Amino acid sequence: MGTRENIVEAGLAAIIQQGYDGMGLEDILKTANASKGSFYHFFKSKDNLVLAIIEEYESFYTHARKTLLSSSDVSPKQRIHNYLLFLVEDQRAHEMARGCLYGMLAQSANARSDSVRQKLDQIFTDWRTHLETEILAAQSANELATSLTPADAADFVICAYEGALIKFKVDRNITALEKFVDGCMRFLFGQPA
C-alpha cells in the first residue's frame, strides 16, 4: 500500500474508534507512518481525508450490496435476507468493534462540511434505492407482507440497522443485530428469518 492508502486506512480506524471529533491527525500519521507533508500532499483538510475514507468504505459496501442484491439464483426475499445476514456477519468479522461509518458521521453531519453531509446524503439515497429495488421485486413476486411503499420499507430497514448498531455497541453483543434481521424479515415478509 502507498502512503495515501495508509493514511486513509489509519483515518478509518481512527473514526471508527474515536469518532470524527476524536480522530487526531498526529495519531493517524503515526499509525500510517506518514509525515504532515505527505498528508497535505494528498489532502487539503481533515474533511478531504474524511471524504476519501467515505469513498473507500463506500466502494466496498456498495459492491457487496450490489452483488448480494443482484443474485439471480435466489428469490428477492432470499436476496434481502442474505444481505441482512451479510451486515451481521460483517460486524462479527470486525470483532464487533466497527459499527457503520455512515451512521457515525451522520450523527454529527450538521457540524460537518457541506461536502461531507452531501456525500452522506448521496450514499443513504443510493442505499435506499438498492433496497427499494429489491423490495419492489419481492412485492412483484408476492413475497412482501408489509403495506408500506418500497421506499418507506427501505428506509425502515436502514433506520432499523443503524439503531441496532447503537444497541449492539452498547451491549457488546451480536444479539441486537440478529434481532434486527429477524425483525426486518418479520416486518417485510411476515415470517422470522
Structure overview:
The protein is mostly helical. The protein folds into two domains: 1-43, Homeodomain-like (Arc Repressor Mutant, subunit A); 46-189, Orthogonal Bundle (Tetracycline Repressor, domain 2), CATH 1.10.357.10. Helices cover 76% and strands 0% of the residues. It is built from nine helices and no strands. The protein has helices at 3-22, 25-32, 36-42, 46-69, 76-93, 101-106, 114-140, 150-171, 175-189. Helix 5 (76-93) packs antiparallel against helix 9, helix 7 (114-140) packs across helix 8 (150-171) and helix 8 packs antiparallel against helix 9 (175-189). It is elongated. It starts with a helix and ends with a helix. Pfam families: TetR_C_13, TetR_N. InterPro entries: Homeodomain-like_sf, HTH_TetR, Tet_transcr_reg_TetR-rel_C_sf, TetR_C. This is TetR/AcrR family transcriptional regulator.
